[in-house]
Amino acid sequence: MNEDHDLPAPRRRRYAQVDVFTDRAGYGNPVAVVFDADDLDARAMQHFARWTNLSETTFVLAPTRADADFRLRIFTPRQELPFAGHPTVGTVHAVLEARADLARRDALVLECASGRLPVRIERGDGRRIFVQAPTARCDAPSASLQADAERVLGVSLPTDPLPRLVDVGARWLVVPCSDGARVRALRPDLEGVAALTQAHDDVVGLCVFGREHGDAALAVRAFCPADGIPEDPVTGSANAAIAAFLREADRLGTIGTRWRASQGREIGRDGTVEVVVDAASGTIEIGGRCVGCIDGTVTL
Description:
Number of strands: 18
Shape: globular
């Protein structure tokens, strides 16, 4: 994977691929994880992330701060992200499997471009990994964003609450829909979604949610065509952005402070994201189960 003479000489590194927000291989959202990546620069990482062609690829490095257990960098096929949910949860799973010194820990601290993030592990009926998302920043509700979203989604949307841009390390256009059935039936204009997200600085995609009834409280879909990802299977940062949206819009009373979101069924992935919100502080955790699918080495 060495296309330029000034990149490090290729060597074998531990490599894993993890399906996140599921306990069934072939479901959820896969992330590629490369260990021992300290000697790789951003160009080499970006090249490999394009090659995997997964929605995200992560690289595990030694921490630069004493209070972190490890550091990670996260890349889509197009760009580096300060934070993303499913890659972080999946990388923690891979690290727990690879490092005996951390395997039985119930809490970790990881370092990423968004800063220091606490990780909590729940055990019992299977291991669940929760990561605290970066502090959310919510723009004002926007009628013009609603009109744009209606145009690219091809549906009418409720006017209360209106869509808004939410930054949780990744910046999303968050769009509420009337119910889960309408979310699942969406057939968006992906070229229009790409143009809409590119018209706003650093927006990774458009996520839509609606109320469900049953095992999941919300149906969620996330579209990121500008990053080469028409529909992201199951998205931690989008669900964190939705949680921040609901708190900012004073809608947590209708759903509570811990819920499950269903995402990915429309593209055959059927994942589940667990969301925990501290209503007072605004702290948001996203998490769920993982299953390892590939454990080996890569020459990079």
